[in-house]
Amino acid sequence: MLASFTFLTPDGALLALLAILPVTAFAWASRRVAIIRSALGLPPPRAGGRARWLAPAAVVVLLALAAMQPVIRTQATVRTRADAQVFVVLDTSRSMAAAPSPTAPTRLDQAKTLALSLQGELGGLPLGVATFTDRVLPDLFPTADRAAYDSTVESVSVEDPPPREVAVVATNFAALVALGTQGFFPPSVHRRAVILITDGESAPFDAAGLAASLKQHATTLAVVRVGGGGDRVWTNGRPEAGYLPDPSGARTTVDRVGAAFGHPPGESAASIVRRAVGSGPTVRVGAGPRSRTLAPYVALLAVLPLAFAIGRLRPPRGYALVNRNPGRASA
After folding, report:
1. pLDDT band at residue 102 under the 50/70/90 scheme
2. d(CA 55, CA 57)
3. What integer is the mean pLDDT of 322-328?
4. For the stretch 97-123, what's the b/e string if a residue is b when 16 or more beta carbons lie within 10 angstroms of its beta carbon?
């Protein structure tokens, strides 16, 4: 297994320049103390004086090293399921541009975040990406390449491509039938799952017919809804008059699909997919990069010189304060 060492943020090394401050301060103070000690004929300080002013500098240097985010990168074998695949379908209709405010994340932004998080929940399963309005179009066929999946999800945008027909509600869940009939999954894959991330707004469709068609092709559909009733499509900071959300209708649509597929209410999409595809054989598809960050450990090491410096500030055992006014009686 090959390994390499690198820094994710090498500019963090500039923080090490701050170590000059404690070193300079302690050096200047030590010189003044030495001059005064020599003038008074006092003995030299006990051992460890230099370490006392080097400790704060070591703290700064170690924290700068942690800020540089050192990582060890290795190449690990990537294995994936050979009998199961998953498509993540993103609704890209105009309503997915809606948001609670002009500066808030849009529904599509929320959908992308959810899509990216599915990687960790569905490890070992090939993931593909498709977009959906009144038709479903593949952007990336299921793959074990997580970098390709991430970049494809990030590239998705609203109405790109646009729906085939212009309508008040362009989205139509009936178009999802194509996921089972138009070659989205190869014949060799017998366990198929689809996660649709949508605001739930759709033209009228037959939920039972959709479920029957996809089940006939061994395909399970789980729907994740994003957005709320307060969302609007904003243009130049103002809501578009032509769009009004339908939160109750969207909830009903999602609930109908879940009921048609027999999903328990409240079950997560990842759980539905895991239950649907079960377990199966895996195949080696190559090697993928893995990174292990060392920054937390380096930052933890900074505690050692810090504790040493604090410990040196305490007076030595048996030390007693000298009364500067010996002639003054104590009470």
Report:
1. very high
2. 5
3. 48
4. bbbbeeeeebbbebbbebbeebeeebe
Tokens in use for 315?
């007076």
> What are the CA-CA distances from residue 167 to residues 130, 134, 323 (Å)?
21, 10, 93
CATH architecture of the domain covering 83-280 = 3-Layer(aba) Sandwich (3.40)
Residues in contact with 225: Cβ distance below 8 Å, sequence separation at least 6, in sequence order: 198, 199, 200, 250, 251, 254
Helix (H) or strand (E) holding 143: strand 136-143
- Domain ranges, ordered by start, for the chain: 3-73+292-313, 83-280
Number of Cβ within 10 Å of residue 251's Cβ equals 13
Q: Which residue did the predictor score with more confidence, 315 or 104? A: 104
Q: Nearest 10 degrees: CA dihedral of 45, 47, 53, 56?
A: -140
pTM for the predicted model, two decimal places: 0.66
What tokens were used for 155? Answer: 């590239």
More confident residue, 53 or 245: 245
Whether 330 shows a pLDDT value over 70: the answer reads no
